[in-house]
């Protein structure tokens, strides 16, 4: 095995990449980069019946959008390819035959009907059918049949599978980086299928062979693969290979904390479970993505890192470099991690504040046709004033529309609060104060208007509240003097006079 850390993310292209898969890819990436190692993408497409067109490209696009690109993989050769299992199928047959030759595997010719009969028979007796040491000598395989019978079946082209010969009465002592010591009684293990007569391996064989040939040092994968650990470890033993270190990540749970997070949970509660939008090529059903919903990749990565891991401190905001430096597999939890859709919004709000105003302005302009003729620098100035209250780019219009168009109506509750007897006269006088100001800056506006209010002993709110309502249409928004400066003197007076006429 290589002395350098080499990890792999090995998804199947059977649909869009689930958020749990992104978390697995992220933890592999962080571990590799922490140890100056290599992060590999391997496409496990041995099950061609479940292959979905476009799914592989989706996986690549998702990793790139998340800023966790792979070092080796499809179209990024690193001397260990091919990186699609379907392009490696000639490799696996010899290893399956090697296991038969060493007595660690055997041919099984049982028909689907026969196996189904045994399953139903066991169910009727309240038992579970397991194909292993206690019944394999009674079934149709190269253990129970003579060599001549086996050769004849193979020569006739009878369908078969190659099964692993799980040992009897042994105790496996396994170690998982996250879960510690694990003891497995081999008597409860079934003889898993490793290879089929169509020339394709099952996941179990292909995965072990590829990990060995690609010199994978650490296998970091989801908890759902924990039941396969015993078989995989035994396969390494059977081949006489050094096994990598294993780490099984905790499940990502529903927001309720009960059960594994699914697409249905996202649909039901109104949040995506995929990084990018996905259009099913068969049904044309569209599934929402975090990118299209307005999330920043930095927010998603920061959020996902905390699903099952913590740095041991109170700090929650980590950029990618900080995550790499802080990440340790030993600090990953065993227990499932509850998915909190509000928490990822919290992260997104934070990263919204860190975005460049001009970049946000460009995204905002593309989002709203009303801004197509507006100068980008003006939009950026507006964005800088309102983004503190925004979580997503598409929040910006509701927070800033009055910078681009006069209010069409006035908030009823705000109107009752701001418009009193005498308000009209105050606004008329305010226009007279504003009109002669030539250098229309925030400072000059504050000096003239505040000076007038103070010298006449007028209540500050008596002027500022109706002024804000005139400019915004509601009692909200940034400082009124900032609003006046940005929309300009002509527009400011026009909006105040409109309010006066309504009063």
From TrEMBL:
<dbReference type="InterPro" id="IPR001412">
    <property type="entry name" value="aa-tRNA-synth_I_CS"/>
</dbReference>
<comment type="function">
    <text>Catalyzes the attachment of glutamate to tRNA(Glu) in a two-step reaction: glutamate is first activated by ATP to form Glu-AMP and then transferred to the acceptor end of tRNA(Glu).</text>
</comment>
<feature type="domain" description="Glutamyl/glutaminyl-tRNA synthetase class Ib catalytic">
    <location>
        <begin position="4"/>
        <end position="346"/>
    </location>
</feature>
<dbReference type="InterPro" id="IPR020058">
    <property type="entry name" value="Glu/Gln-tRNA-synth_Ib_cat-dom"/>
</dbReference>
<dbReference type="InterPro" id="IPR000924">
    <property type="entry name" value="Glu/Gln-tRNA-synth"/>
</dbReference>
<feature type="domain" description="Aminoacyl-tRNA synthetase class I anticodon-binding">
    <location>
        <begin position="362"/>
        <end position="500"/>
    </location>
</feature>
<keyword id="KW-0547">Nucleotide-binding</keyword>
<dbReference type="InterPro" id="IPR033910">
    <property type="entry name" value="GluRS_core"/>
</dbReference>
<dbReference type="InterPro" id="IPR045462">
    <property type="entry name" value="aa-tRNA-synth_I_cd-bd"/>
</dbReference>
<dbReference type="Pfam" id="PF00749">
    <property type="entry name" value="tRNA-synt_1c"/>
</dbReference>
<dbReference type="GO" id="GO:0004818">
    <property type="term" value="F:glutamate-tRNA ligase activity"/>
</dbReference>
<keyword id="KW-0963">Cytoplasm</keyword>
<keyword id="KW-0436">Ligase</keyword>
<keyword id="KW-0648">Protein biosynthesis</keyword>
<keyword id="KW-0030">Aminoacyl-tRNA synthetase</keyword>
<dbReference type="InterPro" id="IPR014729">
    <property type="entry name" value="Rossmann-like_a/b/a_fold"/>
</dbReference>
<dbReference type="InterPro" id="IPR004527">
    <property type="entry name" value="Glu-tRNA-ligase_bac/mito"/>
</dbReference>
<dbReference type="InterPro" id="IPR020751">
    <property type="entry name" value="aa-tRNA-synth_I_codon-bd_sub2"/>
</dbReference>
<keyword id="KW-0067">ATP-binding</keyword>
<feature type="short sequence motif" description="'HIGH' region">
    <location>
        <begin position="11"/>
        <end position="21"/>
    </location>
</feature>
<dbReference type="InterPro" id="IPR049940">
    <property type="entry name" value="GluQ/Sye"/>
</dbReference>
<dbReference type="Pfam" id="PF19269">
    <property type="entry name" value="Anticodon_2"/>
</dbReference>
<protein>
    <recommendedName>
        <fullName>Glutamate--tRNA ligase</fullName>
        <ecNumber>6.1.1.17</ecNumber>
    </recommendedName>
</protein>
<comment type="subunit">
    <text>Monomer.</text>
</comment>
<feature type="short sequence motif" description="'KMSKS' region">
    <location>
        <begin position="260"/>
        <end position="264"/>
    </location>
</feature>
<feature type="binding site">
    <location>
        <position position="263"/>
    </location>
    <ligand>
        <name>ATP</name>
    </ligand>
</feature>
<dbReference type="InterPro" id="IPR020061">
    <property type="entry name" value="Glu_tRNA_lig_a-bdl"/>
</dbReference>
<dbReference type="InterPro" id="IPR008925">
    <property type="entry name" value="aa_tRNA-synth_I_cd-bd_sf"/>
</dbReference>
<comment type="similarity">
    <text>Belongs to the class-I aminoacyl-tRNA synthetase family. Glutamate--tRNA ligase type 1 subfamily.</text>
</comment>
